[in-house]
Design brief:
The structure holds three protein chains of three kinds.
Chain A lengths: L1 E10 L7 E8 L4 E5 L6 H9 L7 E9 L2 E2 L5 H11 E4 L13 H12 L4 H14 L5 H5 L8 H13 L5 E5 L7 H18 L2 E6 L2 H7 L2 E6 L2 E7 H6 L4 H9 L9
Parallel strand pairs in A: 3-8, 3-9, 6-7, 7-8
Antiparallel strand pairs in A: 1-2, 1-4, 4-5, 9-10
Helix pairs in contact in A: 3-4, 3-6, 4-6
Chain B lengths: L3 E15 L5 E16 L3 E5 L6 H8 L7 E6 L5 E3 L13 H12 L4 H14 L16 H13 L5 E5 L7 H18 L2 E6 L2 H7 L2 E6 L2 E7 H6 L4 H9 L2
Chain C lengths: L9 H24 L31 H37 L1 H16 L2 H12 L4 H27 L3 H9 L3 H37 L11 H9 L6 H32 L1
Helix pairs in contact in C: 1-2, 1-9, 2-3, 2-5, 2-7, 2-8, 2-9, 3-5, 4-5, 5-7, 6-7, 7-8, 7-9, 8-9
Amino acid sequence: MLVINDLHVRFNGREREAVGGISLSINDGEIVGLVGESGSGKTVTAMSIAGLLPRRQCTYSGDILLDGKDLLHAQRSELRKLHGKEIGVVFQEPMSSMDPLMKIGHQIGEVLRIHTDLSMSQIREKALEAMASVELKNPEQIYDCYPHELSGGMLQRCMIAAAIVIEPSLLLLDEPTTALDVTIQAQILELLKKLNARLGISMLLISHNLNVVRKLCSRIAVMKRGLIVEIGDTESVFLNPQHDYTKALIKAIPTRERRFG
Amino acid sequence: MKEPVLEVRHVSGGYRESGVLGTRKRYQEVIQDVDFCVYHGEILGLVGESGTGKTTLTRMILGMLKPERGEIIHHTKRPQIIFQDPYSSLNPVYTAEWAVEEPLRVFGKYDAKERKRRVYEMLERVKLPRECWNAKPDDLSGGQRQRVCIAAALIQRPRFLIADEPVSALDVTIQAKILDLIKELRDDLDLSFLFISHDLNVVYQLCDRVLVMKSGRIVEQGDIEEVYNNPKSEYTKKLLEASL
Amino acid sequence: MTKKDSSIDPKSFLIVGAVITLLLVLVIIVGMFWTPYSPTAMKYGRFQSPSWNHIFGTDNFGRDIFSRIVKGAGNTLVIALSTVIIGAAGGILIGSLTGYFGGAVDVVLMRVNDALTAFPSFLLALLIVSLVGPGSKYSVVLALGLVFIPSFARVTRSEFASLRSRNFVTGARLTGAGHARIIFVYLLPNTGRVLLPALTIGFNNAVLAEASMSFLGIGVTPPDSSLGYMLSEAQSMVSIAPWYALSTGLSIVLLVFGVGLIGEGLQARAKEVD
C-alpha cells in the first residue's frame, strides 16, 4: 500500500544526503519497523512520508506512493487532504504534540471536523468510540479534560485515538514510546498490536530502540547514514544479521545478560 | 563486610513551596524513609519510573536539599555527578580541555603545568580523541560530550560518584562504549557509583546491587542476581515483566 | 525544483554595519584633533549652500557645517557610549544578582524595575536632568544611563534565571566554585549572545534620546554641541538653509543605521546558534 522508491533527500548546504536513495514498501495490515541511530535518516524518511519535509530547504527525488497516490511531489493542498484522511501520525512527545488550551475530546475530533461533513454530535460519538478503542477508561470524563490533567501514558493513548479516529490506512509512529516509562511503554505496544489486529491499519514504526521494534514489527529495515543497510523479517534479522552494522547494533542492545564478569 | 562510602539513614524529605518574601507554604514529601548504603567499590543501581523521587534523592545526597528527617553520612569528600544530558552539563562557551581543567582551577592546589598534566592524563583515560580536546560542546557528539563530563567529574579524584541516567540520551552503540568506560574506570580508579537508570537491562549489565524505588520509597533492594531472578515485591515483578 | 533560502546571510549585515560604523568612528576620531575648518570660527560667510569648499554649506553665523557635524557627532558618540556603559554596567549587575540568587531580593528589585519601566523613560530622564541641573552633557549621560538600567537588568535576569538551573552550573557548584566565579566565569559569557544585540539597540536609543533631549533644549547646550542640538538649531532656519537640517539629520540616521545593522546581524547569528 505504501511504496517508497529510490528516495533521496539532501538539505541545502549539506554535503551528505540525509536520505541517500532508499526503497521500502509496506503491505496492507503490516507493521514495519525502521530503526537507526541519530543521524541515520529515519526521521527524515518519516517527515517525507508525513509531508513535513521543508521543501524549500532541501532537494529531493524519488517516489512515495500511498495506494498509488504520489505523496512526495503532490501540491500542498492535495497533500493536506491525503494526510488527514489516509495517514495518522503519532509523535514522541505527547505533551508537546497537543494543544494545551483545547479539550482532549475536541483535539481527537478535530481531524473529522476538517475532513468530513459529520455533525457535532456524530463527531463526538466517533471521538468517544476512538477513545474507547485505545482503552481509555471513562472516555466521557477524559473528553472534557485538558492535556495537563492527564499522565504521559494517557496522553499517548489520546494521540493514538486522534490518529485513528478517521480510520486512516497508515499509521506513522515516530518514537511513540521513547518518552514513556517502561511499564507504560509495554501497555502502549500491546495496544498498538491489538489495533493492528482488529482494525488492520498498516503501521510504520520509527525507533532507535530495537527491543521495541522487535516486539511490534513483522519486518524491519535498518538505516545507517541515509541508507537501508539491511531489511527482512524481524526474527531472521535479529537471529541472523547479515550486515556488520546490524550485528554491532544488535550486540549493543542492553539485554538481560551480564556484559561484565 | 565492606566499608560504606555513603550511608543514607531513614531519610524523608521533599520540597517546601515558598511564597513571596520567603513565607512558608505547602510541604510536599517526595522521599519517604529511604535507607541504604553504597559500599566501597560497588556500583549500586537505582531503578524506578519517572516521578518516584530519584532526582530529589540525588539532590539530597549532593547536599543541595536538606532532608526533613534522617541523615546522610558521607565517608568520602566531594561526591561528583554525571548527568543524563551531557549537552547542558557543559558550558557552551568553553572547550573540552577547559571544562576538565576547571575543577582544578577552582581547587587551586596545583600550578598551571601540573594542572595540564593531570587534564591530559584524564582526557587520555576517558579516551577522548585528541582532536576533540580543543573543541567546544557544539562540535562534539553526544558520546564525546559524555566522556568530557566524566573526565571533569573525575579530575578532582572523587571516591564516589552519582551517575544520573548517564547513557539514556545516547545511541545504543555509543551507550555500550560509555558503559564499558564506566566499568573500566571503576576498576582502575577504585570508585564507587550510585547508578540511576530507568533501563533495567543496563542496570543488570553494570551493577552489583540494586535499589528499586516507587513513589518515594524503596520497595526492594539486594544483590542484582537475587532481585532479578527472584523479585520479592509486586512492583519489581511488574517492572521486570515490562522491560523488554 | 529547489529554491534558495531567500533570507539574507546575517554575516553580510554584520560586515556592512561594521564598515559604516568604523568609517564614521574614524571620521569622528580624526575630527577630535583636526577638522577642515574651525568649527567655532564665524568667518566663512553666512548661509552658504554646499560647495566643494564647504561640502555641507555654512550656518547663520558663517560656520562650516561639516566641521561642526564632525565635532558634534563626537559629543553624541561619547554621550551615547557613556550612557550605554552606565546602563549596561548597572543593569547587568542588578540583573545577574537577581537572576542568580532569586528569592526576596529578586522580587523587590524586579518590582522596582517594573515601576520604572512603566514610567515613560523620557519623562524619567527629564526628571533626573532637572534634579541634577540641566545644561551639561554629564547630566544628560547620568540621566539617560539611569533610565537605561531597567532594560539591561531585565534581559540579564531572564538569561541568568534560565541558565542557573543548567547542569553545568550544578556541576560547578559541586566542584566548589563560589558564587562570584559562577556568575562571572560561567554565566556572564553565556549571556553575550543576547547582551551584544541589546548593547547595540541601547546605543541607538541613546543617540536618539540625546538628540530629542537636546532638540528640546534640556540636553547639550553651547559651547558644547551635539547632533541633536544642531538639529534643533537647524529647524529654525530650515527654509533658508535646508542643507543644515538635512546633513545633520542624515548623519544621525547613518550612525543609527550602521550600529543597527550590527545589532541585526548579531541577533540573527544568536538565533542561528539556537
